[in-house]
UniProtKB/TrEMBL annotation:
InterPro entries noted in UniProt: Glutathione_S-Trfase_N, Thioredoxin-like_sf
Highest taxon of the lineage: Bacteria
Protein name: Glutathione S-transferase N-terminal domain-containing protein
Residue ranges of every copy of the GST N-terminal domain listed in the record: 15-80
Species classification: Bacteria, Pseudomonadati, Pseudomonadota, Alphaproteobacteria, Sphingomonadales
Signal peptide interval: none
SUPFAM superfamilies, per the entry: Thioredoxin-like
Length: 125
């Protein structure tokens, strides 16, 4: 018998443009109230715990990450958006104008800044 009390848990890195992309999509699909969200900072204990969970599950740590079923994890914003769009009967290409606005607007610049920030952080370590 399936666990009807399970709520997917989404881990979102505070400065991650991909995490924001997922959150926008879930909100626009009207699904965000079905999730428990954990927002974390790079290098904190929450990130360490998530990295351990993903590694133990055989998944390369990346963000966002969602526990889609008990002990089952999935990463990559586009794959997660597609998964939950299918479940909601939504076409992400035509039914999510806010997501399209984000992707065509500030998202590319956020990616550029995110990569620069990561390169600087990696150089400092």
């Amino acid at each position: 018998m399936p666990d009807t009390t399970f709520r997917p848990r989404a881990w979102l890195l505070k400065t991650c443009p991909f995490c924001l992309k997922l959150r926008i999509a879930l909100n626009e699909m009207g699904l965000d109230d079905r999730f428990d969200f954990t927002v974390f900072e790079k290098g904190d204990d929450t990130e360490a715990d998530l990295r351990r969970r993903l590694t133990d599950a055989g998944i390369k740590p990346s963000y966002p990450a969602v526990e889609v079923a008990p002990g089952e994890y999935e990463t990559e914003s586009d794959r997660l958006i597609a998964r939950y769009a299918r479940e909601a009967g939504v076409d992400p290409e035509t039914d999510l104008p806010l997501l399209a606005y984000y992707e065509a607007g500030v998202f590319p610049k956020f990616i550029e800044l995110f990569k620069e920030h990561q390169a600087r952080a990696d150089a400092d370590t």
